[in-house]
């Protein structure tokens, strides 16, 4: 029988090795570098705030370096970066599973680590994938997890387990053995375990990792549904397309450092300027018109001309071209993709799809 998930009163689903790590390292000595604690205003407006959060392992390896993170309440925050960039280590520190070397952080307005006992019951998390008893049903697994939670009321267990299964779309499969669940169903059951009590913050570490397209769609839809109810969702991923489709905000990690964060629209706008693209057989004339209109970096190619859009209204430029007799076959504004922006920030590629 495989090693089951352990979930204590915090609502965090982790494997047993993580539970031991949390117990043995939480009180380890920490280097104090004088990083200021999150201000009350920052902590109140954000579900997660870190200041100078750093993790240095024995031997000198720095997994997370001087992290200043701000996750707005109510957002779906994508924590994006290539594998090995420090995402999981950051999550472990946030949840008290690993002690930071230095720095400060807060969860739901509560300073950590002193407030772990107060904050973590309001946090649900799935770290490093689900693991349940394979020969028990999904419902039976949740009953065992709920019974292990000293803060759970046994009188409401049946109702809460039923609500959690319904929330993730597993009511019909509640009596099915876990070993017969698909990967997508297993991931949804893990999220149900994290939602056995009301949560203000849900932390998911690579929730679509290894899933087929159908399982990926199921988990993505579930995350959106949970966020619509006001729960802040913090999702780590190396899959660019997943972050782009389900997240409102994003933080980008590179080799342990946060290189950018903010709303997705703002990060996209921070890339190279948008360019006008004109498809035409009259390349020379079109290039002359664009340059005469004050557009910069005009480039003529095979059957097309491009230029930096600047602040000019595209419809005005199109009218100018037509007015000068240019035969316009196609006209549009080409904006940088998120992939281009993120590769420019990290110097590394991302997995674009699942």
Description:
The chain is an alpha/beta fold. It has 2 domains: 6-268, P-loop containing nucleotide triphosphate hydrolases (Rossmann fold); 273-335, YebC, transcriptional regulation domain (Alpha-Beta Plaits). 34% of the residues lie in helices and 24% in strands. The protein has helices at residues 16-25, 40-45, 87-94, 116-119, 138-147, 157-167, 183-194, 213-228, 240-246, 264-269, 283-292, 314-323, 338-346; strands at 6-7, 12-14, 46-56, 62-67, 70-72, 76-80, 102-107, 110-112, 123-126, 201-205, 232-237, 249-254, 257-263, 275-279, 299-300, 304-308, 330-334. The strands form 3 sheets. Strands 1-2-9-10-11-6-12-13 form an 8-stranded mixed sheet, with helices on both faces. A hairpin with a 3-residue loop joins β15 (299-300) and β16. α7 (183-194) runs parallel beside α8 (213-228).
The portion of residues assigned to helices is 25-40%
CATH topology of the largest domain: Rossmann fold
**Biggest sheet features:** 8 strands, mixed
Detail the poorly predicted runs: 1-10, 14-35
Cα-based radius of gyration, to the nearest Å = 25 Å
What is the CATH superfamily label of the largest domain?
P-loop containing nucleotide triphosphate hydrolases
SSE blueprint and pairings:
Layout lengths: L5 E2 L4 E3 L1 H10 L14 H6 E11 L5 E6 L2 E3 L3 E5 L6 H8 L7 E6 L2 E3 L3 H4 L3 E4 L11 H10 L9 H11 L15 H12 L6 E5 L7 H16 L3 E6 L2 H7 L2 E6 L2 E7 H6 L5 E5 L3 H10 L6 E2 L3 E5 L5 H10 L6 E5 L3 H9 L8
Parallel strand pairs: 2-9, 6-11, 6-12, 9-10, 10-11
Antiparallel strand pairs: 1-2, 3-4, 3-5, 3-7, 7-8, 12-13, 14-16, 14-17, 15-16
């Amino acid at each position: 029988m495989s090693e089951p998930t352990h979930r204590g009163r915090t609502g965090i689903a982790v494997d047993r090795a993580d539970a031991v790590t949390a117990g043995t390292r939480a009180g380890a000595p920490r280097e104090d570098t004088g990083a200021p604690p999150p201000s009350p205003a920052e902590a109140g407006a954000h579900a997660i705030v870190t200041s100078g959060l750093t993790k240095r392992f024995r031997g000198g390896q720095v997994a997370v370096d001087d992290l200043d993170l701000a996750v707005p309440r109510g957002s779906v925050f994508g924590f994006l970066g290539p594998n090995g960039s420090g995402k999981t280590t950051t999550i472990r520190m946030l949840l008290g599973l690993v002690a930071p070397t230095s720095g400060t952080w807060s969860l739901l307005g509560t300073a950590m680590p002193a407030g772990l006992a107060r904050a973590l019951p309001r946090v649900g998390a799935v770290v490093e994938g689900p693991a349940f008893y394979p020969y028990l049903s999904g419902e039976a697994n949740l009953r065992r997890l709920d019974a292990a939670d000293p803060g759970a009321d046994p009188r409401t267990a049946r109702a809460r387990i039923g609500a959690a299964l319904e929330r993730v779309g597993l009511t019909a499969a509640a009596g099915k053995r876990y070993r017969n669940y698909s990967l997508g169903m297993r991931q949804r059951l893990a999220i149900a375990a994290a939602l056995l009590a009301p949560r203000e913050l849900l932390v998911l570490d690579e929730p679509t990792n290894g899933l087929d397209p159908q399982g990926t769609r199921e988990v993505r839809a579930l995350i959106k549904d949970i966020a619509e109810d006001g729960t802040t969702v913090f999702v780590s991923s190396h899959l660019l397309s997943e972050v782009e489709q389900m997240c409102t905000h994003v933080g980008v990690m590179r080799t342990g450092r946060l290189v950018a964060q903010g709303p997705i629209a703002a990060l996209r706008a921070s890339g190279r300027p948008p360019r006008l693209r004109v498809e035409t057989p009259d390349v020379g004339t079109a290039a002359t018109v664009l340059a005469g209109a004050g557009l910069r970096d005009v480039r003529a190619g095979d059957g097309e001309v491009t230029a930096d859009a600047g602040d000019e209204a595209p419809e005005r430029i199109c009218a100018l071209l037509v007015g000068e007799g240019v035969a316009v076959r196609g006209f549009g504004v080409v904006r940088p993709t998120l992939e281009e922006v993120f590769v420019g920030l990290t110097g590394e590629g991302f997995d674009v799809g699942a």
